[in-house]
């Protein structure tokens, strides 16, 4: 799971910085765990652009346009919401096996569950 989280953080932060040309804020949170499932990890990156993310599909040997496809394929859920004058894009990974997990677009949605912050970093 660590490698997946590193890739998700890298993609979301890179997208924010490349597409806005400004710093971004990275936040990570862990959900409360219970005996059946050790919870989930939420990664969130806030930037200064109010423009919604625009998922693309890269063709052939194009070097750009795969970031949100990777997020969609690796995260159990992802989406975005307005935040201040900009937006926050988030994704979640369940830390327990779950049937039917896989990427999903949730525009403007907030994730269910109780989260506690574990880190916040400006990029």
Describe this structure in words.
The protein has 123 residues and is of the alpha+beta class. Helix content is 22%, strand content 34%. It has two helices and six strands. It has helices at residues 2-20, 67-74; strands at residues 25-31, 40-47, 77-83, 86-94, 105-107, 115-122. It has a six-stranded mixed sheet, covered by helices on one side. Strand 3 and strand 4 form a beta hairpin. Helix 1 runs antiparallel to helix 2. The longest helix is centred in the N-terminal third of the chain and has 19 residues, at 2-20. The radius of gyration is 14 Å and the shape is globular. The model is unreliable at 98-119 (pLDDT under 50).
Gist?
The protein has 123 residues and is α+β, with helices and mostly antiparallel strands. The chain is built from two helices and six strands.
Summary tags:
single chain, 123 residues, alpha+beta, six-stranded mixed sheet, 6 strands
Element layout with pairings:
Elements (H helix, E strand, L loop, with lengths): L1 H19 L4 E7 L8 E8 L19 H8 L2 E7 L2 E9 L10 E3 L7 E8 L1
Parallel strand pairs: 3-5
Antiparallel strand pairs: 1-2, 1-6, 2-4, 3-4
Helix pairs in contact: 1-2
